[in-house]
Amino acid sequence: MDFDAFGSLWDRHPAWRLLRAHNSPLILTFLGNYFVEGNRGASSASALATALDDLLYDLNGVSPAEDGQPRFPKEPRAYLEDWAATEAGFLRRFYPPGDDEVHYEVTPAFEKAYAWVVSLQGRSFVGTESRLHTVVELLRQIVHGTEADPEIRLAELRRRRAEIDAEIEAVESGDVSVLDETGVRDRYQQMSATARELLSDFREVEDNFRLLDRAAREKIASWDGPKGELLAELVGSRSEIAGSDQGRSFQSFYEFLLSDARQRELSDLLATVSSLDIVDADRRIRGIHHDWSEAADRTQRTVRQISEQLRRFLDDQVWLENRRVLDLVRSVEATALGIRGREPRFGLEVDQPGIEIVLPFERPLYQQPAAVTVESTIGDATEQVDADLLFTQTFVDQARLAANIRTILPERSSALLSDVVDMYPIEQGAAEIVGYLALNDDDVSVDIDDTDETLLEYPDPDDPETTKRARLPRVTVRRR
pTM of the predicted model, to two decimals? Predict the structure, then answer.
């Protein structure tokens, strides 16, 4: 990085902006303790303002300014709005679905700044042995994991078996070697630091997924071409998230957390290590796997938003009935995207200046309305009205689709979506196909492979004599 790159970070990056802010100790103290140390996700403005009000009350009472005035005179909500402003970027301000109260959560930039400031504290013990062993073990996994020669792999496995056999013989003979206190503290320090860094990494992964979801929303708002092409791009976007490096790594981590056996093993290991007398156990580390699960679930919900956008876009009935409303909404969204980078304009413009004057006597006098006779009975109808059109609605029951998959597939097995459709033909058209793609039940998952294609045929719901075809990537359904 050159001088210009550092200058750009100094001027624009929220983490560096936080470090040179006037109230940075207050920001780091409150947001760090509330979100990072407390492992909290998005919180409502009222709950956050209450917690900040308690902190400001204590700080203003203990350390007032030199002139006797409060050191932090603003209201808690004013501080929150300042920290969430575009020129700050320490908090993300948004409205969650189904809630009309604004929520806040810290940004990955704040996490980086907070972690760096905390690392400035001196440490009485700095372990190096455990990190060296970790580096060597990672190198072994890379080298042996990429080795394709069977003879070399077998030689390495025999060497490891010989080491294990030698250790078993030593234990059987009574020679049991244990870690000394320094080695235990060294490894515990590295383990706790890595466990806390994982929570910080989850926020950055969630932010990256949110950027991909935002790109999909922008594409829908500005799209003016055929729906089929947009559908192909949105399905590709979902596959891109699942197939990216961070997507694959996150999915592997999430599957590890979903395993009951591994969860029990991890809980037992954390409980055993935390009970050792020779380590200064951190109370957060003992339940860190529960914090991981909560953070992973928040990230998983962000990935599901693209599937929800896809389902709403393909609802043909809503598209036809609300076409005018959708056009207006897209126009507003496209305009907002177009002026997002511009400076805000101040002032007010009116179409017609002045006040319209109406004299009191210009208003007509009260007139009693004429009585109208209402005939409550209807005679013979001159034409037949099809009332079924009033009740025509499209609803895809995902519970039925998941039940179809459970009926066909036993546990821990998979099959192509085309095979499932052969057994249970499509009855509701493209909406039912999208229902299969959006399945994410407790024991049912859907994988999309862009390297291959699948052609599904189904009858038109409006004209059963007509057969339609849907071309989509290769789709595999699995049962855990």
Answer: 0.48
